[in-house]
Design goal:
The complex is a heteropentamer.
Chain A lengths: L1 H21 L3 H21 L3 H25 L13 H21 L9 H7 L8 H9 L1 H20 L20 H24 L7 H17 L11 H25 L10 H25 L9
Helix pairs in contact in A: 1-2, 2-3, 3-9, 6-7, 7-10, 7-11, 8-9, 9-11, 10-11
Chain C lengths: L2 H12 L1 H6 L2 H29 L4 E4 L8 E4 L2 H21 L9 H4 L5 H21 L3 H19 L5 H32 L4 H9 L4 H18 L9 H7 L2 H11 L1 H14 L2 H27 L4 H23 L4 H36 L10 H4 L1 H15 L5 H15 L3 H26 L13 H17 L24
Antiparallel strand pairs in C: 1-2
Helix pairs in contact in C: 1-3, 1-6, 3-4, 3-6, 4-6, 4-12, 4-16, 4-21, 6-7, 6-12, 7-8, 7-12, 8-10, 8-11, 10-13, 11-12, 11-15, 12-16, 13-15, 14-15, 14-20, 15-16, 15-20, 16-18, 16-19, 16-21, 18-20, 18-21, 19-20
Chain E lengths: L1 H30 L3 H23 L6 H39 L8
The chains are: A mainly alpha, B mainly alpha, C mainly alpha, D mainly alpha, E mainly alpha.
């Protein structure tokens, strides 16, 4: 029975993806993409990867959707694109089908006693007294990847800010929508924001033992921030605002500080003090969540507008 | 007959105890002095005093050529680089000749370019070419030879393209293109050569000794011949020489035609095995040399400008040198290289003097130009081998190498040809005095400045009499042997024949149209056309390749083809 | 367990905090200090590798691979890190706002605040490069590649001109396409072997398991890396990106940024893949490399703008390294070691000379106000030191002594001829010819008499001297002996010997 | 045919769609969407691999899941940067070409 | 045993009803001509459908917290769809008004 549900879900996923790829116009493609993202979240739940499902829906289709819709609104009517070579579409379709078929064969040919690291994780997890193995891998076993991934997030914001014509990157980004927010969205912002923040903090706290964690709560908090901005409840924060920048640096450099502290306590970089692992991990997670929330929100808000211009 | 263990002509045995250290430092200073001054030119103070110093810079090289015992070598840099210098007979002859030409041409250049604003730049290129030329004659290991050869070739561009006219830029570009081609050919040959002996940067002598046994003997010899004959200007690789020599200022073309061309000669002398008969290659080189000798004369006769006539004369004379070397290595006769170097040195001095005389004539009134033409004629005849002149000594010496068979006859006949060309050159020099005497704008009505005349005459005297001093030492035969009645007659008939034909042609010869410089280059115009179409095609293909869909398809194509090949390979 | 490896990755990041919080001037000085520290750390690592004679390793967080992530510095990566650190430091000094700069019109063009962003990106580049050279885990290498792309793309469009933005967008999208293919390869490898640590994978692959899927994974990863290294025919983004970027940025992009994917390609095919597979894949890379050398060389000859000419020259010179694959993978030890050393020396000397040429081109363009070749005649008078730096850098590209390029070219030629692959030898020579063509074309134009009147601007002398220093660095590499370098063989073949129980 | 394998095949199909999108998209936005679909497909295959590796009490291998989370965040950063570039480029082109808005936009 | 039977029957009935409402909502979305009526159909039918499904699943929920979470989900869905419906409606009306007085509405993007 569940296989049937999976089959239908896969079919819907495929249709969604084709919808995204095949439509020429930008807006329907983005809307199809958001729908496809939600279906993808469902697929992750079916694959027993609830953390990933949360991340996919919150970041993969949620905030990405906002960014893409913002882009569609900013793009002028696309000029008559020069007609692509007539042979391009059939050739591309042929290559796409060939690659998909080859990959399918490869997936089918994966070795039967599937090689896995689950046993190693199970062996090493109790030492960190974390319940959720994914958080364990993210913050303890492969902590270097997560640390550098935070730097990637930080860099992409620096990249977005570098695009502003205001050289000092101190100004305030342009508001998301030029006209004032309609009343219902202001109402929604006022009502939903506190609940959302609560849900975000819950996700953060539950992350140690159950699905959840820094990324997902950061995304939810960022969404709530954006909702407040779009509902004109709070002003768009200026790029030069000192506390904002400190929050942004808290994630990557807080984690780095803990990593260096690991030398003193656990004798190895990014090692956690034996006995107090959980406390330190939670502290790191809080720092990461704050910086993710701020960075994601600022990325969506875009580069600071020029000083003179509104 | 001759060999390396030759007593140096200038016997400084009096300084016996300091002898090895002195001669080693002499060799190093010969190269280091011009190089240091070239970089010193960056400092304005040095730049001001340089013009007066220029004459004395080649002095250490001259003394080294005369005093340093043959076969002495000095290690300049420690082992991994092994920058070694060594002096042998051919090297010494060419080094001495070059030093003399550099000294006189330097004095001449300073007077010739007195009012030229770009003189400091010319001086820097002049010093770099000088350093490169001394280095190329002295250096003994493969990598350093390549460095010296590159230095002399690329800095000679500065001399050629000094006047910066449109034609000079075109000639300079062609010169650079062919030089880079030559470098590529030679690096391939040197890499194959150097992989013979064990260590990475072997001595040239050891590498060449292993050449006959090396698996790549044919490609090495082919590349070496191509690379060095390109510099010597053998047909069909000579196209750049008439262009470059005619656009360069007079002292520049004297240096180019006299010394830079000899880098190709010393290259052949260093990198061809001596004493090992190479019949096939010898015949090829000799044939090409002879053909070039006649071809140079034929095209030279049609030229209207004395410098271009001299350029073709150099092409022809280098053909003769190549023929001598070819004949020598055909049956591996000993002493070939020293005599070939002797002939080349003689040509160096004579050709340098003749170019300087052209400058003097162009700066003189018609009456004085005739006097200059007389000296030029004398130099020309000496080059052609007129008995009792220095050139005759050289012609006699090469007769010792080339037997009296077919090649010998052709060689002597070429002397007649070059007499004809020299007569034509003298006629052009005489005429050149008249037309552009006004354009020079010299205020002293028609009297060429002393700064030009003195060095030219000094070089002319040297060119005429130096071979006598060196003949005995080079060939081991006493000078008097060349003065026997039979030798005199044998030397005279080609020159006489040449003069007779010249007189006949001058009297009622046909009006032959002038062949443009770089003759077959214009026939090869289609080469540049195809080159341009290839370039446009590539740029268009690049534009297509850089479109997004094409690049994305290319990326997937690469991934798929790589996966396919690896899967078939991985399949047991 | 050498702590220096961790410092190499994390030290540059520490420079970001002052840059981001404090003003641009103090931030700039802190960044330069951090780049100097980075150079010191990489020199320490190189010295440690040389003394110890074996490759120092480090398990981050104390967890040994395959669960944790390991860092390891063998001779090859130590050499590359040293080169990258040197070029980044000198380029940083070049981009510093010098004493007379505030008044110059360059600063006035609204890039006063820009240097802070430039130095943030430069430090992130240093971190990404060191991670790419040290990491032994395929996914950590993916993160390093992404960090590299995210630091490089804003560098291209720092001045915000429309041309630069579209170049940056194309660069970002094509690099992302490449990194997704790389990630697909990593996924298949994990599906097959359950581990991402290169040493373990090498062991498993050597046993011949995996078959077609392993081949497909290696192919996908290689294709991704070739896309990010702009190897022919995937070079669509390189010319506009490298020529459009500001001088210091294009120097760093051309000299070191594209070297990381190339380095990973070499590591993939020398440490990870078994020898028989490498010997099959080697010729394909060699063909792409040869096509790059000839095709991009000819297109470089035809360029009308100086920076585009140098950018195409970069696209061509990348091909040289790919020629090394079949030569270094052959069985006879001596000649493959020579090809290996030749390839590395070419990487190092190309980095130094290309950085010098781009910095010099930047100064020339700034002095003359444009970089159209037709209008640059006689620039040698205005910017003599820049033209000298460009010429010396060009010397190394042409492969004339006494430059690093010459030593590399001789080594590649010797190895190619000894192993009988004549076509690689001819391509190396053709590359030298083409390089000679486009370098001499620029030098000749610069040394001619000026056709039109020259502007009265002068070159910024202390920046030109930095470019000259880089060019001299490329020449110094030329004094390496013409023999295989033992330093580069330390730590090969790859294994965690001694560190792993 | 277990559930994991089914989603693996779906992942392969999504990779195919992503490739088709990247090849045929005319504008940069289409390519960004294609890149995201392609990334989603790759992660889905990784999820299927994780699900197959269920052992030692976990219903799926946690290591690939952690990598996928990092991958999704990196993919988002890429999309955000690409969109910011695209928006800035289009506003500049719109501002640069108001004069000839009438005739065909060059 | 009887309790679970009744609970299952209860769930079956209510979930089926819920799905019927969802089907109606989707049918409305597809068939109705203008955007406004489509929004109307969607918000009304889907909310009731969701309420019925949540109600039907309450007995299946393990403990009280899960049940509370499902009800919270329903409440959030109500809040969100209500607010969003209003915003979209205002946007559609504003677009129609601008379209009417400025110039014939250029084909509004779907």
């Amino acid at each position: 029975m569940s296989l049937l549900f999976d089959a239908v879900l896969c079919l819907l996923l495929l249709l969604g993806a084709l919808g995204v790829v095949a439509t020429g116009a930008a807006r329907p493609a983005v809307i199809a993409f958001i729908g496809y993202g939600l279906l993808l979240g469902l697929a992750w739940v079916r694959l027993d990867a609830v953390d990933v499902a949360l991340t996919e829906i919150a970041i993969g289709s949620g905030i990405s959707g906002v960014v893409l819709l913002h882009c569609v609104r900013a793009l002028p009517a696309p000029p008559r694109a020069p007609a692509a070579h007539p042979m391009l579409r059939p050739l591309a379709a042929a290559i796409a089908v060939a690659i998909a078929a080859a990959l399918a064969l490869a997936v089918l040919a994966l070795p039967e006693p599937a090689p896995t690291r689950a046993a190693d994780v199970a062996a090493a997890l109790p030492a960190t007294d974390l319940g959720n193995p994914v958080t364990g891998v993210l913050l303890v076993f492969r902590a270097l990847d997560t640390l550098l991934e935070k730097v990637v997030l930080f860099l992409s914001l620096v990249g977005v800010w570098a695009l502003s014509r205001d050289p000092a990157c101190r100004g305030r980004p342009a508001p998301l929508s030029p006209e004032p927010a309609p009343a219902p969205s202001a109402f929604l912002a006022r009502v939903l924001a506190p609940i959302g923040v609560l849900v975000g903090l819950y996700l953060l706290w539950a992350g140690a033992d159950h699905p959840g964690g820094a990324f997902q709560s950061g995304a939810v908090l960022a969404a709530m921030g954006l909702l407040l901005v779009m509902g004109d409840q709070i002003r768009v924060p200026a790029a030069g605002n000192r506390s904002l920048r400190l929050l942004m640096l808290a994630g990557p450099f807080g984690f780095l500080a803990v990593g260096f502290a690991g030398w003193a306590t656990a004798g190895v970089f990014l090692g956690y003090p034996p006995g107090a692992e959980k406390a330190v991990i939670i502290a790191v997670e809080v720092a990461i969540t704050l910086s993710i929330a701020v960075t994601l929100a600022l990325i969506v808000l875009g580069p600071p507008a020029d000083e003179g211009r509104s | 007959m001759t060999g390396d263990a030759l007593p140096p002509p200038l016997d400084l045995s009096g300084l016996a105890p300091a002898m090895p250290v002195l001669s080693e430092t002499l060799m190093v200073v010969a190269i280091a002095l011009p190089l240091a001054l070239a970089f010193g030119a960056l400092v304005p103070a040095v730049r001001r005093v340089l013009p007066h110093l220029l004459v004395f810079v080649p002095l250490p090289a001259l003394i080294a050529a005369l005093a340093v015992p043959r076969g002495l070598s000095v290690l300049v840099a420690p082992d991994p680089f092994r920058f070694t210098l060594a002096l042998d007979a051919p090297g010494a002859l060419l080094l001495g000749g070059a030093a003399l030409l550099w000294m006189t041409a330097s004095a001449y250049a300073m007077a010739y370019l007195r009012k030229d604003p770009a003189r400091p730049a010319f001086i820097v290129w002049w010093l770099l070419t000088m350093a490169g030329s001394f280095a190329v004659f002295l250096v003994a290991d493969v990598a350093s030879f390549y460095l010296a050869y590159a230095l002399v070739s690329f800095s000679a561009y500065g001399l050629a393209a000094h006047d910066d006219t449109v034609e000079a830029r075109r000639a300079g570009a062609l010169y650079l293109a062919l030089t880079v081609l030559g470098e590529a050919l030679l690096i391939a040959a040197f890499v194959m050569l150097a992989s013979g002996p064990a260590d990475a940067n072997p001595q040239i002598r050891d590498a060449v000794a292993l050449l006959p046994a090396s698996p790549w003997k044919t490609p090495i010899l082919l590349l070496i011949l191509l690379g060095f004959t390109l510099k010597m200007g053998l047909f069909p690789l000579h196209v750049w020489m008439p262009l470059a020599h005619s656009v360069a200022p007079v002292p520049g073309s004297a240096a180019l035609s006299g010394i830079v061309v000899k880098a190709g000669v010393i290259g052949l002398l260093r990198f061809l095995p001596e004493g090992v008969p190479l019949p096939g290659w010898g015949a090829l080189l000799c044939g090409a040399g002879l053909f070039t000798a006649y071809y140079g004369v034929a095209v030279g006769l049609t030229q209207r400008h004395p410098k271009r006539a001299l350029a073709y004369s150099t092409v022809s004379q280098m053909g003769v040198v190549a023929a001598v070397i070819g004949a020598g290595i055909m049956n591996g006769t000993a002493g070939t290289f020293t005599i070939a170097a002797f002939y080349a040195a003689n040509h160096m001095l004579l050709k340098g003097a003749m170019f300087l005389m052209v400058g003097v004539a162009m700066a003189a009134s018609p009456r004085r130009a005739l006097a200059a033409a007389a000296v030029a004629a004398l130099l020309g005849l000496s080059l052609a081998g007129l008995p009792l002149s220095g050139g005759a000594m050289a012609k006699y010496a090469i007769k010792l190498i080339v037997p009296d068979g077919g090649a010998g006859v052709l060689l002597t006949l070429s002397a007649a040809g070059s007499t004809l060309l020299m007569a034509r050159y003298a006629l052009l020099v005489a005429r050149s005095g008249t037309e552009n005497q006004k354009t020079e704008g010299k205020e002293m009505q028609g009297r060429p400045p002393r700064g030009l005349v003195l060095p030219a005459l000094a070089l002319a005297v040297l060119a005429l009499f130096a071979p006598f001093a060196l003949f005995a030492e080079v060939t081991g035969v006493p000078v008097s042997a060349a003065f026997t009645a039979a030798a005199l007659v044998k030397g005279f008939w080609p020159v006489g024949l040449g003069l007779g034909v010249a007189a006949l042609l001058a009297w009622k010869g046909p009006r032959v149209p002038e062949v443009p410089a770089g003759d077959i280059l214009h026939a090869a115009g289609f080469l540049s056309a195809t080159g341009r179409t290839i370039m446009e095609g590539t740029v268009a293909a690049d534009a297509v390749l850089r479109r997004w869909p094409v690049a994305a398809l290319a990326l997937l194509g690469v991934a798929v083809s790589l996966a396919a090949t690896l899967t078939f390979a991985a399949m047991p | 367990m050498s702590a220096l490896l961790v410092l190499a990755v994390t030290a540059p990041l520490l420079g970001l905090v002052p840059l981001f919080l404090l003003g641009p001037r103090t931030g700039e000085r802190a960044a330069l200090a951090m780049l100097a520290v980075n150079l010191a750390v990489t020199a320490g690592i190189a010295e440690q590798v040389a003394q110890g004679g074996r490759a120092p390793g480090y398990f981050v967080g104390g967890f040994a691979p395959p669960l944790g992530v390991g860092l390891r510095a063998d001779g090859f990566s130590a050499a590359m890190m040293l080169m990258a650190a040197l070029v980044l430091l000198l380029t940083g000094l070049f981009a510093m706002t010098g004493p007379g700069d505030m008044t110059r019109k360059v600063k006035a063009r609204g890039s006063a605040g820009r240097p802070a962003t430039f130095f943030i990106l430069l430090l992130s580049l240093a971190c990404a490069l060191n991670l790419a050279f040290l990491a032994q885990d395929l996914f950590t290498l993916y993160v390093a590649l992404e960090l590299l792309t995210f630091a490089a793309v804003p560098l291209v469009c720092l001045e915000g001109k429309a041309g630069q933005l579209s170049a940056a967008l194309t660069y970002l999208l094509f690099a992302l396409f490449g990194s997704v293919l790389y990630l697909l390869g990593v996924v298949l490898v994990y599906g097959l072997f359950g581990t991402l640590d290169i040493a373990h994978l090498a062991g498993l692959l050597a046993q011949g398991t995996g078959g077609a899927t392993a081949a497909a994974a290696l192919a996908l990863m290689s294709a991704g890396l070739m896309a990010k290294a702009a190897l022919f025919p995937l070079h669509l983004w390189l010319p506009p990106a490298h020529s459009g970027a500001p001088p210091a940025a294009s120097a760093v992009l051309s000299a070191v940024v594209i070297k990381a994917p190339l380095f990973l390609l070499v590591r993939l095919w020398s440490d990870l893949a078994p020898l028989p597979l490498t010997q099959v894949a080697g010729p394909i890379f060699a063909v792409c490399g040869a096509a790059a050398i000839v095709f991009c060389g000819v297109v470089a000859l035809a360029q009308e703008r100086l920076k585009l000419l140098i950018a195409y020259s970069t696209a061509a010179q990348i091909g040289y390294l790919c020629l090394m694959f079949p030569l270094a993978a052959s069985d006879d030890g001596q000649w493959s070691a020579l090809a290996w050393t030749g390839g590395t020396l070419h990487l190092v000397s190309h980095a130094l000379s290309k950085a010098a040429m781009f910095l010099a081109a930047g100064l020339i363009a700034e002095t003359m106000g444009h970089d159209r070749l037709s209008g640059l005649s006689g620039v040698g008078r205005l910017a003599p030191v820049s033209v000298a730096a460009f010429g010396l850098g060009g010397l190394s590209l042409m492969g004339l002594p006494p430059s690093g390029g010459f030593v590399a070219k001789v080594m590649l030629l010797t190895s190619a001829l000894q192993q009988g692959s004549w076509w690689i030898a001819t391509v190396v020579l053709a590359g030298g010819l083409l390089a000679g063509g486009y370098v001499l074309r620029v030098v000749v134009i610069a040394l001619q008499h000026p056709d039109a009147g020259l502007p009265e601007a002068r070159e910024c002398r202390w920046r030109a001297l930095i470019a000259l220093a880089l060019a001299f660095g490329a020449m110094l590499v030329g004094f390496m002996p013409l023999a295989p370098l033992p330093f580069l063989d330390i730590g090969r073949p790859l294994s965690w010997e001694g560190l792993l129980p | 045919m277990t559930g994991a394998l089914l989603f693996g095949l779906a992942g392969a199909a999504l990779v195919g769609c992503g490739v088709y999108g990247l090849l045929t998209a005319s504008g940069a936005l289409g390519r960004i969407l294609g890149f995201n679909v392609l990334g989603g497909g790759v992660f889905l295959i990784f999820g299927a691999v994780a699900r197959r590796g269920a052992a030692a009490g976990f219903s799926a291998d946690p290591v690939p899941q952690a990598l996928v989370i990092t991958g999704i965040v990196v993919a988002f950063c890429a999309t955000a940067l690409a969109v910011a570039l695209l928006v800035r480029l289009s506003t500049m082109e719109a501002r640069a070409a108001p004069a000839d808005a009438g005739e065909k936009e060059t | 045993m009887a309790m679970s039977l009744i609970a299952d029957a209860f769930t079956l009935v209510f979930v089926a009803a819920g799905i019927a409402f969802f089907a109606a909502g989707t049918l409305g979305l597809v068939r109705l001509p203008q955007t406004l009526s489509r929004i109307h159909a969607l918000t009304k039918a889907d909310n009731v459908g969701l309420a019925l499904v949540v109600l039907g699943l309450l007995p299946q929920a393990g403990n009280i917290f899960d049940a509370a979470k499902m009800v919270a989900i329903w409440l959030l869905a109500q809040l969100a769809s209500g607010a969003v419906a209003q915003v979209m409606a205002e946007a559609v009306i504003a677009e129609a008004r601008d379209g009417a007085d400025a110039s014939p509405p250029e084909e509004s993007r779907p």
